[in-house]
Design goal:
- With 49 residues, this protein is mainly beta.
- The protein is 0% helix and 59% strand.
- The protein has no helices and four strands.
- It has a four-stranded antiparallel β-sheet, with no helix packed on it.
- It is elongated.
- The two termini are 17 Å apart.
- InterPro entries: Ribosomal_bL33, Ribosomal_bL33_CS, Ribosomal_bL33_sf, Ribosomal_zn-bd.
- Belongs to the bacterial ribosomal protein bL33 family.
- This is Large ribosomal subunit protein bL33.
- One of its GO terms (cellular component) is ribosome.
- Keywords: Ribonucleoprotein, Ribosomal protein.
Length: 49
């Protein structure tokens, strides 16, 4: 079962991306390096509540 999640920049806290996550296999919060258009660089994006 997948759940739609939102990824927020760790530096400026802007919510830039949304994706799906398989809840039954992944129990921890997702952390991915993605490009932030507000910061202008690649930063760590974390799953929000």
């Amino acid at each position: 079962m997948s759940k739609k999640i939102t990824l927020a920049c760790a530096i400026c806290s802007s919510r830039n991306y949304s994706t799906n996550k398989n809840v039954s296999t992944t129990s921890t919060r997702l952390e991915v390096k993605k490009y932030c258009k507000h910061c202008g660089e690649h930063t760590l994006h974390r799953e929000t509540k």
